[in-house]
Automatic annotation (TrEMBL):
InterPro entries: Acyl_CoA_acyltransferase, Bact_Acetyltransf, GNAT_dom. PROSITE patterns: GNAT. It comes from Caldilineaceae bacterium SB0675_bin_29. Residues 332-343 have a biased composition (Acidic residues). Residues 321-343 are annotated as: Disordered. Pfam families: Acetyltransf_1. SUPFAM superfamilies: Acyl-CoA N-acyltransferases (Nat) (SSF55729). This is GNAT family N-acetyltransferase. It comes from the Bacteria. Gene3D superfamilies: 3.40.630.30.
Amino acid sequence: MITIRPFETNDQDYRLAVNITNAVWPEYPDTVDEWKESDEKRSKLLKRGRFFAEIDGKPVGFASYGQSLWINHPGKLFVGVEVLPEFRRRGVGAALWERLCNEIQQFDPLRLLAHTREDYEDGIHFASKLGFEERMRDWESRLDPASLDLDEWSRYHHQVDEQGIEIRTVAELESDPDRDRKLYELEWLIDRDVPSPEPPSKVPFEEFQKVWERTNLLPDAWFVAVDNGEYVGMTNLWTSQANAKLLYVGITGVTRSHRKRGIAMALKVRSVEFALQKGFSEIRTWNETNNQAMLGINNRLGFVRQPAHIEYVKVMREERPEDAHLKIQDSPQEEEKQEIEAN
């Protein structure tokens, strides 16, 4: 018999949830500490729900829904359903989905966002069965920093130097009293041009500043292109607590006014230099399949393409005129609810 129970914020449930997620996504392991930190830094404005499916008291599946300030609408929710491989096709996913759908009705859902990987056949079948439609794909690419002959790419450093553009780390820019505000505005300029299944929203500045509290942040691997005091491009790398040799690319981009000048390539080369100097063995990044400019840079550097990640959207209702103005901040600011008790 399948029973559904809420996730509770204790060590045992964190371990259970992380173990299920890691079993479903073994190439992208997380740790309990990373989940706890993410929860701690999450805006209290955002509503969410998480719960387990159990068979004979054993957790065999995990589901979640949640709002995001990056897509700021109370009815646009990220959702996920994970079931241990050996317990699939036994109604576990359907039971989790039914519970999830019942809970999200309180938000008058507009669209649901989910993802899987193109070689995860069970995930593709489940998404299609539930009425999700593919919105876009992101190629994953991986690089062994040791495979790159950095001397061959040093010309890009000289090229930006000749334009009077400096590549500096955020640690080196700490003395700039406007650093955080400049980074915030730069990231927003870049985000607006990054393909996304939904139009992005500008997060509040105070939410952006929480980045400095993140354990996986590497201030010495966050590189900024500076043109006469103006921040015009950046790339950053993040660590993984589950894999000490792995780095993830957070965001790479250059403002429109400074593109096609070799800046993005110079930033990427600096990030690879950092990875090599610090002994990391792999860098992973994702790019939308039509983002030819960034894919071209990664291909030239020797990133090896992996299976694509598919972004899905499920339309729950027709859009209304007021949806254009709805924001999460406008929703009632009641205490964040825990999941409803299972029957």
